[in-house]
Amino acid sequence: AGQNVLLPVLGTVFQSYIPNQQTGKITRSDIAKQVHSPNVPHILASIQDVNVFDALSSLISHLHLLWELVLTAEPIVVMASSPTECSALVQALTYLIQPLPYSAEYRPYFTIHDSEFKEFTRKQYNPPCVILGVTNPFFTKTLQHWPHTIKLGDSSSIKTKLRKVGNTKLLDTAPGVYTQYKPFLEKDKTIIKKLHNGIRTDRPSEVQTAMVKRHLLELTQSFMIPLERYMASLMPLQKNISPFRAPPVPNPFNPEDFFATLQQAGPHLTTGIKGDWIGLYRNFFRTPNFSAWFHQRHSNLTNKLHALQLEALAESDLKKWSIGKKEVEIVDMVLKLREVLKSNPPVADNTRTLLARRLEDLNCVLPEDMKSILNAAT
Questions:
Q1: How far apart are the first and last CA of the chain?
Q2: What is the pLDDT of residues 178-213, one digit of tens each?
Q3: Which residues form the UDENN domain (predicted)?
């Protein structure tokens, strides 16, 4: 489930719990269970727990628009009067699609001295998939070709208007979200109303943040669960796994096949939000967010197939298999087993033990001179 490590820093020892990729979201109570020492004075569930609501309070009406922009890794510029404000909003934006990791690039505070300044301000190319936080008014003109700009105003303002991106003159003064993006999905007006009521009644920002995070978590999960389900269906049947052949590869990802599954098990059924979900998926498939997720899931499937093939090999009767085989085929299998055992394969300890026994079985059927050659080679 993860690993506990001790990190000595300036006379203080930090006991840290590092989860693995399959652990999922870690809470304070989860960490408390992992900490072995009764003398730990304080437990931090996270080094940085972003207060999403404080950063987004003036943009709550556009919460679902921002979620789509971040999900599809659109280029976004955040303009604010201070590094604290712009970096807080950039950080909050990357949190909107949790538990899906934001895999594009983001710069909480970008200046004219950054090495990518020329690249990001070059108008003859499409802007990269980056969220930039800036404070220098110079960027109002040099980044006006970026498709989405969030201009923050006075921190006391409650609402920020949605403005067409063509009104670049307004960028000098007027706060707003400047974009021509047309959302694929309708707003969930219920959560927006609840959050605005919370602002009027001075509901604590921690409670507001929890509401925002829970709503967007459920929205992202509803979006990703059909993909997770479809990805699992790409696993070849176990009967196609042979102990004596290379493991099969996952079946190819076909967007049209995936779309065909949405009518019966799509996100519109769990969220109640109407809109062009397929169009949103099509845009998502072109993003670094999808690429990172897909490569991780594909790697997991590949490793699982490799493990199943090794388990089948560990359970096989190699003495029986070797009957009638040429010596070179048996030697190839011996070398393969040696390489597998040396590479620390992703299988259980008992499977490793069985693989070692299969290696011994093959050594028994080899002639003495070949055993000597193989032993000398090691």
A1: 35
A2: 999 999 999 999 999 999 999 999 999 899 999 999
A3: 1-295
